[in-house]
Specification:
Number of strands: 6
Order of helices and strands: HEEEEHEEH
Distance between the termini: 117 Å
CATH topology of one domain: Mago nashi protein
Shape: globular
Oligomer: single chain
Number of helices: 3
Largest sheet: 6 strands, antiparallel
């Protein structure tokens, strides 16, 4: 019995060492675009084998439509996941930036409990720029259509509107020459 427990411990340790030595891309990652008031956001999931899905979502990542599946080249998916592993290992942090209350949005990746920098803000490291490039590559390869205006917000129906004034039939008076003091 003691030998069996020891053997299980050795096998478990070897498995952990093997996993630690291999790139950490076992279960994939998610990309979240929070959207804005005028453009819907999306959530995308990608696995190391290149399979994934995307769907429109709220600012908090809640789905607003069914998921659509896609497959991209494994090389793109693995490069993306390796960039995330590298960014997390290097403790890459983002640079905060100002955002418009109406049009501002954030785009970042979520991987094994780690959140990448917001790629819509300035990126101050090579790792952060690699993550941004790979996020763009995954989105482009997925075939997801470009974001479109989600909804137009019109004026309230009870708001009084001023009608533009009609130009006079004779036109406007020409400007008068400036008089100079004598």
């Amino acid at each position: 019995m003691h030998f069996q427990n020891r053997l299980q411990s050795v096998i478990a340790a070897l498995t952990l060492l093997t996993l630690a030595a291999a790139p950490c891309r076992l279960d994939g990652a998610r990309i979240l675009d929070t959207g804005s008031t005028n453009v819907a956001g999306f959530t995308m999931a990608i696995r190391s084998d290149g399979t994934g899905w995307w769907r429109p979502s709220t600012r908090m990542g809640q789905p607003t439509a069914p998921a659509r599946t896609f497959t991209i080249a494994q090389g793109i998916a693995r490069r993306f996941l390796d960039a995330l592993a590298d960014g997390r290992a290097q403790h890459v942090r983002g640079v905060p930036c100002m955002k418009s209350a109406s049009f501002g949005h954030s785009v970042f990746a979520l991987w094994h409990g780690w959140r990448s920098p917001d790629i819509t803000c300035p990126l101050d490291s090579t790792s952060a720029r690699a993550i941004a490039a790979d996020i763009h590559a995954v989105i482009a390869a997925s075939g997801m259509p470009a974001p479109t205006v989600g909804r137009r917000i019109g004026l309230p129906g009870n708001e009084p509107r001023r009608q533009p004034s009609e130009p006079s039939p004779a036109g406007s008076a020409p400007p008068q020459p400036r008089s100079t003091p004598s």
